[in-house]
Automatic annotation (TrEMBL):
Protein name: Glutathione S-transferase family protein
PROSITE patterns tied to this protein: GST_NTER
GST N-terminal domain residues: 1-76
Stored SUPFAM superfamilies: GST C-terminal domain-like, Thioredoxin-like
Pfam families the UniProt entry points to: GST_C_2, GST_N_3
CDD domains, sorted: GST_N_GTT1_like
């Protein structure tokens, strides 16, 4: 399996999941700013990640994690339908990207590319406020267990954990104490540390 990767991009989710699962992979350095032809063949949209596994080509980080978890499972990282934790698992697996990380792409663009006098614009404020409001769902979940789907770490935590890391990189401000402690719990995992070290 080949993962097109840039440090701190969403390919980190895929590598983190592969490390947790113990699945072998290789990485190819890729840039969404300057995509080369090989990367564009795997992902014509030029977004990261892209994953090629034989005939399988995928470009959505959360979908790739679920693909790996089911292909190489059964694993405690994937909660199966029928398990009482499945609704929470599914919800937070998608929430980490759809509700948390995806809106932050606009902030990444603004932070790194906008002219100086437009960096603190109205949209930045709206998205930042919305991000913080959405953390209430994580806080409530952490009252029910240590992770998003109960007391066991799953792919849903990788999904949410990546978004918390992105918010940190964007300096979006302090997180509620329980969410902050949860984020630190995730990033102290050896598999995360190994994934982070991949260039
Ligand atoms: N929903 C996609 C989002 C992919 C995405 O936006 N990746 C970022 C890098 S972390 C990117 O390529 N941004 C450049 C762009 O949107 O053109 C996923 O989870 O994989």
């Amino acid at each position: 399996m080949k993962i097109y990767h840039a440090p701190r991009s969403r390919s980190l989710r895929v590598i983190w999941a592969a490390e947790e699962l113990g699945v072998p992979y290789e990485t190819t350095a890729a840039s969404f700013a300057r995509p080369d032809p090989e990367f564009l063949e795997a992902n014509p949209a030029g977004t990261l990640p892209a994953m090629v596994d034989g005939e399988v080509v995928m470009t959505e980080s959360v979908a790739i994690m679920q693909y790996l978890g089911t292909k190489h499972g059964p694993t405690p990282l994937v909660v199966e339908p029928g398990d009482a934790r499945y609704p929470d698992y599914l919800q937070f697996l998608l929430f980490g990207e759809a509700s948390l990380a995806a809106p932050l792409n606009a902030l990444v663009g603004t932070k790194f590319m906008a002219p100086e006098d437009q960096k603190d614009n109205f949209t930045v404020k709206v998205i930042t406020r919305s991000f913080h409001r959405r953390l209430a769902l994580i806080e409530r979940q952490l009252q029910r267990g240590d992770y998003m789907a109960g007391d066991a770490f799953t792919l849903a935590d990788i999904s949410v954990g990546y978004a918390l890391g992105l918010a940190d990189m964007l300096e979006l401000g302090e997180l509620p104490a329980t969410v902050d402690a949860y984020g630190k719990r995730l990033t102290s995992r050896p598999a995360y540390q190994r994934a982070l070290a991949v260039a």
